[in-house]
Amino acid sequence: MSPFFLLDFNAKMEFTASSEPRGVGVHPHRGFETVTLSYHGAIAHEDSAGNKGVIYPGDVQWMTAARGILHKEYHEQEYSKSGGPFQMVQLWVNLPAKDKMSTPKYQSIRQSDLGKHVLAADAGTIEVIAGEYEGTDGPASTFTPLQVYNAKLNPEGEALFNFPTHYHTGFLIIEGEVIINGNHKAAENQFVYFSQDGEKICLKAQLNSIVLILSGEPINEPIAQYGPFLMNRPEEIKQALDDYNQGKFGYLE
Amino acid sequence: MLDQFKDYLRKHITITDEQFDFISKDIKVKTFEKNKLILSPGETSAKTYFVTEGLLRCYSIDSKGKANVIQFAPELWWLSERNGFFNEPSDFYIDAIESTTALMIPRNYINDSAAHVPCLYDFNNNILNNSIRFMQKRINMLLSATAEERYLDFIKLYPNLTLRVPQWMIASYLGITPESLSRVRKDLAHKHLKA
After folding, report:
1. How high does pLDDT run on average in chain B?
2. Interchain proximity A242–B159, CB inside 8 Å
3. Which of A219, B9, B65, B97 has the greatest number of CB atoms lying within 10 Å of its CB?
4. Which CATH architecture has domain B28-105?
5. Segments in A20-98 forming alpha helices (H)
6. pTM as predicted
7. Which CATH number fits domain A114-216: 2.130.10.10, 3.90.550.10, 2.40.160.60, 2.60.120.10?
8. Residue positions of A in the annotated binding site for Fe cation?
9. Is the pLDDT of residue B31 over 80?
């Protein structure tokens, strides 16, 4: 679903309290962006560029790995100690060839900074993370045109979307239950992938619902992927491995 | 799985489909779950594994309880415990560190097959010589090389294992502490930062 390469969804689950925070140790990335959205639970992270922070529920971390970064992600200490529900999405957003080796960067976006479009008729709110919805802009800067929103709808609330036909579009039902275009029901934890044959989508909630809306212009370039590297050609993967092994991604304890 | 083995052989020898099918009828395809222990010290096994997917490890545990890695076998690597070839019990453990698919090749495979495909003798000699050469180099490294030299040699031999294997296990292959490996990687990163 270019430019979205991967969607890692932690459906809502309860974690028991733990003094040793669970998570993923130091690992590299090159050639794309990781976008982490927390819905429940808090994630602490740290990278080799010196960035460090906590992603609380509603926040978004938009990390451009580009030519290479090392990072680690763990349950935030206080959350880990208390335990509780955890629900999270991580997206891999591809970069065009010309930007794959650009300087890594990092956008830490608090929920309060998100663009908020309040829908008419008490239907709910569209939180705009990237792109634009009905004149409301999202704070994240992106390398290619794409739209990322959280649609938070009340029961019977309706939202309309309009994306160019050639965009790749998919909805992830984080919570609740929805009807799409009048007759397609989608339940919690389901993903809806749209064919490229129209522009308008109608989303109507049956229950209180949160839907992650993804739409973007495809990057029509070859793909070579190995583990945490997403490049265009196999030689670039080999180079990424060499560079990682040689310490060219930096160092993180 | 067998096709991967055929492609591998064909990089080194000429073999027809009919010849390959004939000599491969006793090869078994085995899958091992992650962390599956395949062989333990005291057991006798003369099987050879050829990994088509995943990663096997051969290691010992010393008197202090520390694991020492003898060999990693990722895709297209051979692994066998050689005491078994002399009908003696193994000194080593073999386990799967990823979920793994491997071909189990019987002990007399080369002898039986070479009657039909004579060039297998030379090929087998070649890979045995190569593995002896490799082990001589490894002994020399363990006796005399610095931690950094050992690590640089390791990433040449196993370029993608740094992504697949935890640091402590790599350190245990290199015969250094996890702290030294960490220091080596840190020093390398700082060298590049300055350059």
Report:
1. 93
2. yes
3. B97
4. Sandwich (2.60)
5. 77-82
6. 0.88
7. 2.60.120.10
8. 27, 29, 71, 73
9. yes
Please, is A151 exposed, middle or buried when counting C-beta atoms within 10 Å of its C-beta (0-12, 13-18, 19+)?
buried
Determine the residue type at A32.
Answer: F
Percent of chain A clearing pLDDT 70 (strictly above): 100
Beta bridge partners of A132: A137
Confidence of residue B110 (pLDDT cuts 50, 70, 90): confident
For residue A102, the distance in angstroms to the closest alpha carbon of chain B comes to: 16
| Mean pLDDT, chain A, whole residue set | 95
CA closest to A24 among chain B residues:
B166
Q: List CB contacts (< 8 A) between B164 and chain A.
A: 227
How far off is chain A from B189, nearest CA to CA, in Å? Answer: 4
CATH topology of domain A4-111+222-245: Jelly Rolls (2.60.120)
Give chain A's length: 253
Is the pLDDT score of B1 beyond 80? no
Distance (Å) from the alpha carbon of A71 to chain B's nearest alpha carbon: 13
pLDDT given at position B32: 98
pLDDT of residue A99: 97
Residue in chain B closest to A28 (alpha carbons) equals B163
User: Cβ contact (<8 Å) for B163 and A250?
Assistant: no
Contact at CB, A227 and B155, closer than 8 angstroms: no
Q: Within chain A, which residue ranges are assigned CATH 2.60.120.10?
A: 4-111+222-245, 114-216
For residue A155, which phi and psi values (nearest 5 degrees)? Answer: -55, 135
**In this predicted structure, what is the pLDDT of residue B103?**
96
